[in-house]
Structure formats: C-alpha cells, structure tokens
Amino acid sequence: MSPVEREDRRRDRRALLGLLVCTALVTALVAGTVVWAQSKIPRVRHTEPAFAGLTDRPARVPGPAGGALNLLLLGTDRRSDVPTTGEGARAAAWEPGEQRTDTMMLVHVAADRRSVQVVSLPRDSWVRVPGHGRAKINAAYSLGGLPRAVETVETLTGVRLDHVAVVDWSGFRALADLAGGVRVRVPETVVDSIRDTTWTAGEHLLSGDEALAYVGQRYGLPGGDLDRVRRQQAVLRALLTDSLHAEMRKDPEQSAHFVTEVLRHVAVDETWSLTGILGFCASLRDLRTADVRFLTAPVAGLGREGAQSVVHLDRPLGRELWAAVRDDVAATWLDRHPDLETGDVVR
C-alpha cells in the first residue's frame, strides 16, 4: 500500500466516526427517560479544557435566540494504534504538532429544537489562526489544542461555541456495521484510482469498510475535497435517517446499545456532563430527519498559498450565514439560499 493510500485510509476512519458522534447525540434519547438512559450508558470521557484561557470570546446572545446550542465537532488525525478519545482511551488525544483536524463541523441546534443545521468547514480553509497568522483551519488544533481550535472557529464565525466533541477513528468498522450499514445513492459511476474501486450508479448499502472508502475518495471527483465533504454529509444523513426511524424510537435497548458503542470513542468538553448530554438529547425527541439540513461554509474558490493548496472562503456570504446562526434564523436563511444546501444525492 502506498503512503497516499495509507494516509487516506487513516482519514477515512476518522471522518466517518466524527459523523457517527453527531448521530449519537441525536439518538441518545429517542426512547426512554434521562434516568433510564443514565443507567445504560457509560460515563463520558472529557477532553482537555476546551475553553481555557479564552477571554475575548463572542458574547452570549440575549433573548430567545440565546437558547440555541452550537456544537463544534472535530475528527482528529492522530496517528495512534490505540484509542485516544472515549471510554477506552489509552493515549493522549492532543500533543503539540502531532495531529490536525480532518473533520470540522459546526452544528447549530435551534432554540426551539425544531431544526438543526450542520455546517462543514473545509479542512483547507485559509483563515486567521490567533497567535499564528494565516493558515489552514485544520492546523489550529495542532498548534494549540482545543482552545486554539475553538478560538479559530469563533474568530472566523463570530459564533459562541457551547460545547465541543472530539473523536478519533478507533472502532469505526464495528460502529458502522452496528448501524446496519450506510445506504447511499451514487448518481453516476465514479472510479477511485487510488483504491482501485468503482462506484457504480445506483443505490449502495455500504459496510464499514466500504463506507470508509466512500467518504475518503477525493481523486476522481470534480470538486476534490469539497465533494468528499458532501459525501461525509450524505453518510451522516443516511445514519440519521436510520437512527430516527420509528422502530428505533420504539426500542430503547437498541438505541442505548448503539449510543453506548459510539460514546466509547468520543470525548466532550469538560463542561458537558452525561446528564447534560442526555437532557439535550431528550429535547430533540421530536426532531425528524427532514429537520436536519447540511451545508458547507460558502466557498469563493480554490487557490494556493505558497506550496499549499487552500480553500478561499466567500467572506461576504459567510458573514451572512454566521449572523443567521448567531440570531438563530439559520433555517430561514438557508431557505433563501437553497443552492448552498447539500442535496440527498452527491457525487
């Protein structure tokens, strides 16, 4: 296996496990009560302090909009043979300069808990990293751990983050298979020359290994890494569809088992207790799949900064989006910009 193939496979696992954590937060209490779920789900492992030393943060939003929740989801590229997050962690999740974030999603949950917008931040976005000048956004975690990653995203968006969840890739295959596979629809046949894989047009039910390959492809896709981001979103949508279906809602044991397995591989910030997570999930019990919408931070184009290939964000349109998130009107804003929403079928 070539170095490129090995690196892509590492990234595949981490990216999709990050998506599974989002699913866990939604499915944790699709049935049962907080007290019941607490007896079934293991303790939550906490990250390093995520907000330590951050003093110049966006203000809390007053009024009803202040009831919204903004979660930063990070999938790290730590090169470790043992788990680095979750209940079974046996190595540090962060060491200076050792890893970056391959998956970054800002998850906005409306104050009325009737809608969720998941905004992917392309890992190559060229942004200001406080204290380090301009760099790719995925370098922030490497340079200063969670506080630097949080500060970078808050500086870019002006959105105050309430919580952070971090995952590594350990145990992905079992989790994807536990979900019964991932169902995706491929609009036209695509060849992945790196993995010597052909995705034929039509519907596919992907095993864990196949899902890794699917979300990891960028070569052979017209949009490169941006298309890979959309594939990640498609996989999350498929998992949400399965986890929010009626049968899962009727079966608290099945729901708790799935969430238990996911939480073995996730760490959340020090301010989020298991009780807090379950209470949050309880508030989402009426959420439907159609209420969860996906988009990518607006992009102006691709370019180069020195030897680096980067993504240049559309700053004027981005300012509109982030203002809508802050004001808790992101769903309405997205209605006015349907071209930015990721559809049901991606390349």
From TrEMBL:
It comes from the Bacteria. Residues 100-241 form the Cell envelope-related transcriptional attenuator domain. InterPro entries: LytR/CpsA/Psr_CW_biosynth, LytR_CpsA_psr. Pfam families: LytR_cpsA_psr. Belongs to the LytR/CpsA/Psr (LCP) family. NCBIfam families: lytR_cpsA_psr. This is Cell envelope-related function transcriptional attenuator common domain-containing protein. The lineage of its organism: Bacteria, Bacillati, Actinomycetota, Actinomycetes, Propionibacteriales.
